[in-house]
Amino acid sequence: xxxKNKTNYSPYKARQESSSSRRPHRGQHRKPATIHTVxxxxxxxxxxxxxxxxxxxxxxxxxxxxxxxEILMKEQEHHNFTRLMTVxxxxxxxxxxxxxxxxxxxxxxxxxxxxxxxxFPGIPLKFFYPNEKIILAEGVxxxxxxxxxxxxxxxxxxxxxxxxxxxxxxxxxxxxIITRAVEDxxxxxxxxxQCLEVGGRVYLMKGPHVGxxxxxxxxxxxxxxxxxxxxxxIPQTPYKRRLLVxxxxxxxxxxxxxxxNFTPSLSNKRxxx
Length: 273
Known about the structure:
- With 273 residues, the protein is an alpha/beta fold.
- The chain has eight helices and seven strands.
- The N terminus and C terminus are likely disordered.
């Protein structure tokens, strides 16, 4: 005959709760188990880039990345800026992901990184274009403070930081805007409508399943045209990416009258890859 558990204690439930308490929840502050020195990080990035077909990253650029890794990880101990904690993950999913666009398209300057977070892709791109004007736009103030600290410690010149979200009221003239934020492509085109000059380009760094966003972006076809569409992956990894490049073809009035409830045509639909 089975005995009743009068205490309502469940060993299985206790083990599950203990295990759950050790795992970081989504959005929970994660801290790096190890922070490598700049030299250690540099050595590891050298091997990593060599094994992932990134020989185009030179010694000086890699050294700056190693320093930025250390700055980011030390800040991560106090603020939750990234979910990536290892040199390998930061090297592949932050650094290499950021600079692969230089192999796919021609960037136009001045270039704004919109919704840069802790500086991606803007700061790694600055390592590639030290003399070009790059602007980091970020609305979360603790990230803005970090970006200013990183700029100072890395001694980056001609790098402006704007502590605000970008919307249709922002009118600083730009030739290029890049973002890998999760905002919908159509919303991004709307928000940069007054700052991007005619002939300027918007570079959207996306995941592979961006087909529905492209359909919604059709409502801007009077003002933008899609001039490049690159399916690619971070070399020697399963991480698939897609780069969309829109060019602004006409000035956009503030009262542009774009329908919020626009329904895309299905006739020319391209299935997401």
